[in-house]
């Protein structure tokens, strides 16, 4: 059973930055395109950013130019650098494959507030 573990969230002021990390219990990253998702209170989970096995990236319009997804297959890890954070970025952030193939982890809470 693959376990996904997200970390790096926290409370940050508007305009601040955070770097999220995602690790898997086994090395799945070299096989799949990976993605970050988020779920804000009272809303459905949404796709935020994706990265292919060849490291091509794509982003939701709401985060384009502010967030950067990257991966390190040797460390079984995917990252999300988040800059210029806004209150509307407040959510629990999750990683998974681009097809959400595996059980969701616990996520990491990101709160953007002054």
Spell out the key features of this protein.
6-stranded mixed beta sheet, 4-stranded antiparallel beta sheet, 46% strand, single chain, 114 residues, mainly beta
Task: Give a topology summary.
Blueprint: E1 4-7, E2 10-12, E3 18-24, E4 34-39, E5 46-51, E6 57-59, E7 67-72, E8 77-82, E9 91-97, E10 108-112
Q: What would a concise description of this structure say?
A:
The protein has 114 residues and is mainly beta. It has no helices and ten strands.
Share of residues in helices? under 10%
Shape annotation: globular
* Low-pLDDT sequence parts: none
* Beta-strand segment tally: 10
Ends distance: 40 Å
Structural class: mainly beta
Q: What is the topology, as strand order, of the major beta sheet?
A: 2-10-9-4-5-6
- The secondary-structure element order is EEEEEEEEEE
Structure, described:
The protein has 114 residues and is mostly beta strands. It has strands at residues 4-7, 10-12, 18-24, 34-39, 46-51, 57-59, 67-72, 77-82, 91-97, 108-112. A hairpin with a 5-residue loop joins β5 (46-51) and β6. The radius of gyration is 13 Å and the shape is globular.
